[in-house]
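sorry to bug you again but im stuck and you know this stuff better than me. what follows is a protein written twice so to speak, once as letters and once as structure tokens for the fold. mainly i need to know what kind of three dimensional shape the backbone takes. anything you notice is useful, everything is just below:
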Amino acid sequence: MTKTNVNNDGTVRRLPSVAQLFCEPRVAMVLGIVICAYLVLAITMANIVPTGLTGLQNAPDEAAHVNYVKVLATGRLPTLQDEKQDPKKQSYEWHQPPLYYLICVPTAQAGVHAMRYISIGLGLIAVLMTFLLAIVAFPNRQWVAVLAASIDALLPAHIAISSSVNNDILLEVCFTSALAAVVIIWQYGATPKRAIVLGICVGAALLTKATALILLPVLVVAAILGVQVGLSKGAILRTAIIAAVTAALICGWWYVHNMVQYHELLPLKEFAQSFSGTAMASQVVSGKLHLQMPMPGWPGYYMLVATMTFKSIWAVYGSRELARFGVPAFLPSQVYIIAFVVTLSCAAGFFMQHFKRTQLYDKTQVRIVWLFLTVIALVALSFAVFISRYFQTQGRYLYPALGPLSILMAQGWLQLFGTKREKSAAFALIAYLGLMAILFLTAVQAASA
């Protein structure tokens, strides 16, 4: 029995029941309302956004993802040849791992909208997993959990991503689920079943998108922190072996396939060839790619990317005309100013929380925050490396970390207003996100008309 799964009175900690998850008054009601709002907004979005395009910022690369599903439905994996033989040049997602597309295969004959509904369902799972992750990590902060789930559910650009055909939403589910598995092991003890669940989450992530490789260093950090929260080295080693074997059984064949087909674990050379038409960062900095705005070298480039990425994390869309060039459209600047103030407020509250961490959280929960920060930092670093080569300003690349990011934002926001006003503060932020989502939906509808 480890220190992590024993209460102060010597009793063994057990996973919370459904009743315990919603013991705080109105938490279940608010979560239910938020879920209903998400479903209404996402289904509406799925029905108004044009299909058959790849350049829409609110349905990025969708036609290419759809073509992957169609090829997979014929009984084979797509290859680089499919891209070369596609006269419309809409088959460039062939290099992606196949799990998301396998899930969509049963809807291949039903069309794009049916595939979009698959994504909406995965988006719902992402919201619920964010709530679960928060509640098992911080069972004494239920309003943090419901606010974190609300941020995940009502963030306008996230609604757009989860109502279009793409594998980003499944990757988020896998990331959040893997973190939840780690936290449960820390909080309630390591068992073979929990190790298998962790392995399933990691294996599914690696079979969804190459970005999932970020989970490997995250799990190394989790093992190191696991010792600090009271897990024995033997328990950590057993968990790591079981999880690794489980993950390998799920996704190992994909890497064998890549070695046979492309002589690489990941088809990076062929991917670079497919991505060669994408705007390069060096072209923007040198002025070869004219953006009709000042670009004072690399500092100016990174400032531009940071600004556009921040906006696209919150709300970005496009029209048929803009989709031809992959150009983003944004809401009025005042919306992003408010979003920036909200973000700064969350950061300030989180900073304030740091000085009260020993009062608010136990040793394990402090390490959970460290783990969350590690995930966010590694995903951000991966994105920074990517944009150093390619001119990409899409905030969705940071969405694998949206679960832990939403939780830390919720913590910071509620800390800023104090315990006595946390419910009012939660309602205020949820209302703002809801209004922003409605405004976004209106803009998308007008652009799609």
Summary: The first helix runs from residue 18 to 21. The chain has one domain: 3-448.
